[in-house]
Design brief:
The protein is an alpha+beta fold. The protein has two domains: about 170 residues, 2-Layer Sandwich (Ribosomal Protein S5, domain 2); about 130 residues, Alpha-Beta Plaits. The protein is built from eleven helices and eleven strands. The strands form two sheets. Strands 1, 2, 3, 4, 5, 6 and 11 form a seven-stranded mixed sheet that branches. Strands 8-9-7-10 form a four-stranded antiparallel sheet. A hairpin with a 6-residue loop joins strand 8 and strand 9. The longest helix is centred in the middle third of the chain and has 19 residues.
Length: about 325
């Protein structure tokens, strides 16, 4: 089938989930980006258009745009003698900590793979999509894009060679999220991280990350929640989010099993057992807590979501 255009959608994601820095990611069914890709006759040329949430802050130059980097790399690898015109419709606010750049990169990879008939494997798609993260984070990393492409919950089991494990979360898992009106550049959020970690902190975080996965295996949201305590990355970023400790305390008091910064922030994500607590109540409690420290925010409720998918072909 000779296609002229393909459109794909990719979900919002949350990375880290506490102690799983650059290793854990989960797809969320609440928000998504859409990327429409058309073939052009301008060999090797990639054009970018952006509309939607935060579009004014997103670069149009392909080498500075997450989807643009993916497109250029896929074109180069494919050997196809064409150009690509890309239209990005943002449903996820950039700099939200909800995988905005990853969603655009993932949707672009999936759409271009289909449009050019490349038949890439999921791992190959993740590798190309991860390159797009250079535009926002300064280096490729695969946690958000893996979740955006595969869906559900993922574990990066190896970075080189890349290996990703996908797991289904318990059916009663829901997430309460609050997105404050604070801007945090991803590269800034990574720059404040410690260059060295002492052994006791490493042992703590390994134990907590293992506990989160054990909770999945045991079908226990409460055990998963115990695994969301990070003493390395979150403390280094806490000063970037006014009222963080107050918001976390309120989430736990309102019934959350665990709570942490979503990705690089500023969103805060709480894990909720839907059989015991309504995610809406936790999200509103976190919103109120932010308001008490003078920060406006928006509540979001989500369940684990599916991965990137084709929504249009012509």
């Amino acid at each position: 089938m000779n296609l002229s255009l393909v459109e794909a959608a990719a979900p919002a994601t949350s990375a880290n989930l506490g102690a799983g820095f650059d290793v854990f990611g989960v797809a969320l069914n609440a928000l998504s980006d859409k990327v429409l890709v058309e073939k052009t006759m301008d060999e090797g040329v990639v054009e970018i258009r952006v509309e939607g949430e935060g579009a004014e802050d997103i670069p149009r130059e392909p080498e500075k745009n997450t989807a643009g980097i993916v497109a250029k790399e896929l074109l180069k690898a494919s050997g196809k003698r064409c150009g690509l015109r890309i239209k990005i419709n943002k449903g996820i606010r950039p700099g939200s900590g909800l995988g905005s750049s990853a969603a655009s990169a993932a949707a672009a990879a999936v759409a271009i793979n289909d449009l050019l008939g490349l038949n890439l494997s999921p791992i190959q798609l993740i590798k190309f999509a991860a390159l797009g993260e250079i535009a926002s984070a300064g280096s490729p990393h695969a946690d958000n894009v893996s979740a955006a492409i595969l869906g559900d919950f993922i574990v990066i089991t190896s970075r080189d060679p890349l290996d990703v494990l996908r797991l289904k979360l318990p059916a009663n898992v829901e997430f309460a999220i609050v997105l404050p009106e604070i801007k945090i550049n991803t590269s800034l959020a990574r720059s404040v991280l410690p260059k060295r970690v002492d052994l006791s902190s490493m042992v703590h975080n390994v134990g907590r990350a293992a506990t989160f996965v054990a909770g999945i295996a045991l079908n226990s949201v409460e055990i998963m929640g115990k695994g969301m305590i990070d003493i390395v990355v979150e403390p280094a970023r806490a000063h970037l989010i006014p009222g963080l400790s107050h918001v976390k305390e309120r989430a736990l008091k309102s019934g959350a099993a665990g709570v942490t910064i979503s990705g690089a922030g500023p969103s805060i994500i709480a894990l909720v057992n839907s059989e015991k607590t309504r995610a809406e109540e936790v999200a509103l409690a976190m919103k109120d807590a932010f308001e008490e420290v003078g920060v406006k925010s928006s509540p979001i409720c989500a369940k684990p979501g599916i991965g990137a998918r084709i929504i249009r072909r012509e």
